[in-house]
Amino acid sequence: MRLRLQPRPWRGGDPRPHRAEWPDRDPAPGRRPAGLADPAHHRPAPAQVTPDPEALRRITAERARLAAARATDSPRTDFAAGFLLPAHGRISGVFGSQRILNGEPRQPHFGFDIAAPTGTPLLAAAGGVVTLAGDFFFFGRIVVIDHGHGVNTLYAHMSAQGVTEGQQVAAGQRIGAIGATGRVTGPHLHFGFSWYTTWLDAQPVLPPVTG
Ligand SMILES: [Zn+2]
Predict the structure, then answer these.
(1) Greatest extent of the chain over all pairs of C-alpha atoms, in Å
(2) For residue 16, how far is its CA from the centre of ligand 1 (angstroms)?
């Protein structure tokens, strides 16, 4: 598939179509990138690379919603118990890998990817409270869990969600299943790990990935 990332004539609607093709900048000034960027192995359909105005409005709203969830400041201490592997499978993407599109460097990959068949159970990596459960343009079905003091985990591209916002979950509790929703070409978990709005590399705190 050929990615359509070259500039093209503006056909009306939101006057910033190209900026939003890859929503990898934080809408809030002075913050780190929100990290909605996904890795090069996510090869999106053209309609998802160049969203129409309605999709752009949706993407903007979703970015704000995600930023708010990740900024949650709670006194929980679930993070102190450590983290479990959220899914079995194989590593298909690592944190910080650089994407090159049409010869231009883009935002690095702000997650850790585990590929496994659709329906593979997804588990909460630690206990906490679900601060976001939605169906996003790029991330597909997504869940964010607050583990306290700004530590949170994100699970994207799910085929099914088994939790709702505000729900308390235990470490290892099933929260859904791996899928291929959002901007992907194959089923996998995009696992995000962050301290407030700063993405961190989850791999050092997770057990080894096994199939
Ligand atoms: Zn990913």
Answers:
(1) 52
(2) 25
The tokens describing 206, both together, are 């997770």
- At the topology level of CATH, where does 39-205 sit? Glucose Permease (Domain IIA) (2.70.70)
Dist. CA 209 → ligand 1 center (Å): 15
Question: Which has the closest alpha carbon to 137: 197, 196, 60?
Answer: 60
pTM, rounded to two decimals: 0.76
How far is the centre of ligand 1, averaged over its atoms, from the C-alpha of 9 (Å)? 30
Q: 182-210: per-residue pLDDT in tens?
A: 999 899 999 999 999 899 999 999 999 99
- Ligand 1 centre and the CA of 195: distance in Å? 18
d(CA 138, CA 161): 16
Question: Would the pLDDT of 118 be above 70?
Answer: yes
Q: How far is ligand 1, taken at its centre, from the CA of residue 94, in Å?
A: 8
Mean pLDDT of the residues in the chain: 83
Ligand 1: centre distance to CA 8 (Å): 27
Q: Quick check: 36 pLDDT over 70? A: no
